Amino acid sequence: MKHYDVYLMPDAIKDLSEIYEYILEASGLPDVAWAYIERLRDKCHGFQVAPIRGQKRDDLRQNLRIAVIDKNAVIAFEVDEDQQSVIILNIFYGGRDYETIMRDSQEI
């Protein structure tokens, strides 16, 4: 079975940081916030095997895929078959409007 390299882009890392801050502020429990971030990272790295999943969204960005990784989190990613890599572009939490965000990022 092929294994893909998984890369979190700077925006995805920033998203994780913001999710951590949000959960920390809401709960006041750094251990809870950190455990959730670790769980999200583990789920992202789970795309090393069989990364062609989720919904293809070429309407928002060429080669974009969207997948639910937790009941409150969705990732936007691309799969590069030639490089055998998965590029995590963003991690959206709590119902953020990923369609608008991804569409707007194409216009820059």
Summarize the structure.
With 108 residues, the chain is of the alpha+beta class.
What does this structure look like?
With 108 residues, this protein is of the alpha+beta class. It has one domain: 2-Layer Sandwich (YaeB-like fold), CATH 3.30.2310. It has three helices and five strands. The chain has helices at 10-27, 30-45, 98-106; strands at residues 5-8, 55-56, 65-70, 73-80, 85-93. A five-stranded mixed β-sheet has the order 1-5-4-3-2. A hairpin with a 2-residue loop joins strand 3 and strand 4. The termini are far apart.
The ordered H/E elements are EHHEEEEH
Second CATH tier, the architecture? 2-Layer Sandwich
**Taking Cα atoms only, what radius of gyration do you get, to the nearest Å?**
14 Å
Major beta sheet summary: 5 strands, mixed
Tally of distinct domains:
1
**Mean pLDDT level:** 91
Descriptive labels:
five-stranded mixed β-sheet, YaeB-like fold, alpha+beta, 108 residues, globular
Detail the topology: elements first, then pairings.
Blueprint: E1 5-8, H1 10-27, H2 30-45, E2 55-56, E3 65-70, E4 73-80, E5 85-93, H3 98-106
Parallel strand pairs: 1-5
Antiparallel strand pairs: 2-3, 3-4, 4-5
Helix pairs in contact: 1-2
